[in-house]
Design brief:
- The structure holds 2 protein chains of 2 kinds.
- In chain A, 28% of the residues lie in helices and 27% in strands.
- Chain A is an alpha/beta fold.
- Chain B is mostly helical.
- Classes of the chains: A alpha/beta, B mainly alpha.
Chain lengths: 348, 79
């Protein structure tokens, strides 16, 4: 699906990560050689892990609270969208809890969107539709995940890969904003490639064994995240370049027109392979995986906030942001913007 | 497509495995230090250099470097 969004401006992107830093080299299931190989190829040197009792919504709330204080727009928020696959409860929707926690007016629409790695670009698209329609003047897009709650310690394919993060993006109506061009899509045939099978309606808790099962030497239960790295890799290399080319084509631009490409930080090998395929120098690919691991839907806004100080006050930058993963689901957006205000916070 | 060039490309991707010499009869899983990451590396290299994207299903029957070379050649001809 191709979409053009008008009159929507990104005012600020704040991100929040837990204080606890966990290093790849300290994962006891890796030999020193494995740890070195893992870091060299995935790029992941360290990641941040939220302690028990701290949720994704807590991380998002810290980022959003600081953003609301800095921008002084608490009373003006008409819409709050929370994009995550780690909500606080089955119900009510976490967005509504955040409306109360952030002391937003009750005349504010709030809802959750259940998407993973494609979620930030989907969130921009959803919020942008409300803003360009004129129904919403200012909106908060809160995006993130506490992925570490669902990875099994015994599973080398997931445990050392994921980190936790929450983000808050402020969007507003602007008559002068340059249009955004978005390509998005879904392919449910990839559902088994990234899945947590147990714990919801299809396989409720208590109806299956919590025993660890072996998957090519990696062990996890049905309540844990299962990830088939090769399937995801193939999906990424085949679908993402097409989506990026489509978004660029809609914007009547080519890869050479980009200042920066920000891919979902799945792993360093996917980023390098996609950059190579797109003929874009790695210097133009912003990354954060080295410091934070794969932070699911938070990875794109976290990467932008992480690079905020070097990009601060730069104007007329053309970005291509592309999120892709669980579903399968993907979305790419081409936008030319003045770099927004950013902040990277630590949740202590 | 020539097997020595193919082996040279594979060796470049696997430099972290040290000085291990690859040959057509090398069994991939027997390479010291081999892990699932190396499968991704070889899939990425083959996609980039040979425009063939190999799935897990394709790779099931691959044991040796030569099997891999044959598979890539076969997939190139199918295109």
């Amino acid at each position: 699906m191709n979409t053009k969004i008008q009159h929507t401006r990104i005012d600020a992107i704040y991100a929040s990560v837990p204080e606890q830093e966990v290093f790849t080299a300290d994962y006891p299931l890796f030999s020193p050689e494995e740890a070195r190989s893992f870091t060299k190829n995935t790029g992941i040197h360290a990641r941040r892990v939220a302690p028990d009792g701290v949720t994704c919504s807590d991380l998002c709330a810290l980022a959003a609270e600081q953003l609301l204080l800095d921008m002084e727009i608490r009373e003006e928020i008409d819409l709050l969208v929370f994009v995550s696959q780690s909500p606080d409860y089955f119900l009510p929707a976490t967005a509504i809890l955040l409306q109360e926690k952030l002391r937003l007016k009750t005349d504010c629409m709030a809802f959750d969107v259940n998407l993973g790695c494609s979620g930030y670009v989907y969130g921009l698209q959803i919020v942008g539709q409300f803003i360009q329609s004129g129904a919403v003047r200012k909106a908060l897009l809160l995006v993130g995940d506490k992925s570490t709650i669902s990875t099994a310690f015994q599973d080398k394919s997931t445990y050392p890969l994921f980190g936790d993060a929450g983000t808050a993006t402020l969007l507003s109506f602007s008559g002068n904003a340059t249009p955004w061009f978005i390509n998005s899509g879904s392919d449910g045939s990839g559902k088994q490639s990234i899945i947590i099978e147990g714990g919801h309606s299809r396989n409720p808790y208590g109806t299956y064994s919590e025993e660890l099962m072996d998957f090519n030497g990696n062990q996890h239960s049905r309540s844990h995240l299962h990830l088939d790295g090769l399937d995801v890799f193939n999906f990424s290399l085949s679908q993402v370049p097409l989506s990026i080319e489509e978004a660029l084509s809609l914007a009547e631009k080519s890869i050479k027109d980009l200042d920066f490409l920000v891919l979902h930080q799945a792993n360093g090998l996917i980023t390098k392979s996609l950059a190579r395929k797109l003929s874009l120098p790695m210097e133009q690919c912003l990354t954060s995986i080295e410091q934070f691991g794969n932070t699911s839907s938070a990875s794109i806004p976290l990467t932008l906030a992480f690079h905020g100080s070097e990009l601060a006050s730069r104007q007329n930058l053309t970005f291509l942001l592309s999120g892709f993963g669980v579903g399968f689901s993907w979305a790419s957006i081409c936008l030319t913007i003045d770099f927004p205000k950013t902040k990277l916070l630590t949740y202590a | 497509m020539e097997i020595n060039a193919f082996i040279a490309h594979l060796s470049e991707e696997f430099e972290d495995l040290g000085v291990f010499e690859l040959s057509p009869s090398t069994v991939l899983r027997d390479i010291p230090g081999w892990n699932s990451m190396h499968i991704l590396l070889l899939v990425a290299m083959i996609d980039f250099r040979y425009q063939v994207l190999l799935s897990g299903e394709h790779l099931k029957a691959v044991i040796t470097v030569n099997d891999l070379f044959d598979l890539v050649e076969q997939k190139q001809h199918e295109h």
